[in-house]
Amino acid sequence: xxxxxxxxxxxxxxxxxxxxxxxxxxxxxxxxxxxxxxxxxxxxxxxxxxxxxxxxxxxxxxxxxxxxxxxxxxxxxxxxxxxxxxxxxxxxxxxxxxxxxxxxxxxxxxxxxxxxxxxxxxxxxxxxxxxxxxxxxxxxxxxxxxxxxxxxxxxxxxxxxxxxxxxxxxxxxxxxxxxxxxxxxxxxxxxxxxxxxxxxxxxxxxxxxxxxxxxxxxxxxxxxxxxxxxxxxxxxxxxxxxxxxxxxxxxxxxxxxxxxxxxxxxxxxxxxxxxxxxxxxxxxxxxxxxxxxxxxxxxxxxxxxxxxxxxxxxxxxxxxxxx
Length: 323
Prior knowledge:
Blueprint: H1 2-19, H2 34-66, H3 95-103, H4 107-110, E1 118-122, H5 128-140, E2 144-147, H6 154-163, E3 168-175, E4 178-186, E5 192-201, E6 219-223, H7 228-238, E7 251-258, E8 261-271, E9 277-281, E10 285-294, E11 305-308, H8 311-314
GO molecular function: rRNA primary transcript binding
Organism: Nothoprocta pentlandii
Subcellular location: Nucleus, Nucleolus
């Protein structure tokens, strides 16, 4: 009999709840009984969902009735499109920007006078995951060579790199066996960028991954690098890859900047028809956040910094971005 009484209690409680009309200032959190509070909160959420759905249906019907006269759909507000204007945003037709680009450290690369040759190295005595990440990164960046550091200071490595015609040095730092930082130094005269690295996924950890990448030179896509600082960082990434991609390889490396986080992805694509494209992620993937940009090559003691990320001063608004 006990079961029957318990079973009958729930509908009765629900019916009682239907009858209860809360005063407008009442908050569900004021209910002392936890189960009752949870039940009322669920009901309130359900009501909200119903209203939202009803409004959406109503709007859709109105749009269908109006046909071509329907007003354009409102653009949803996002942090990205509510971005605070940055006075350093680059105008593609700006003569000053064009002059700076023609005389900066990357100009010989973009004029096809130098061919990128990259040394990928690690923090001292790297562990398994960092080692594998470096190996996979070297299959993404053509003409790159991996060197595992054992006790040699970066200050000593840089002159050796310059003597052997390396154009860039990438250092992968790790913490507790996990890659967590990337230093990118353009040789011989800089600049040097320090990034925090997160969300590293190696090839075997990516679902539905494609076969290994081929030796072809990939295409490079740089998205959303709009300010002067962003422009400099974009040019640094671009100059890691040979200027003339081999489209037959159908491989593409993407650096996508969103809210100052740079997402890296490496894909292979195929045109199935004129309208359909199939893409396959090859990996690895990782996310970067710029911490500082330094003039010259790596010099932690006496280096001159162009830009440093100072969280307390710079991150006052969620809608302010620097790249």
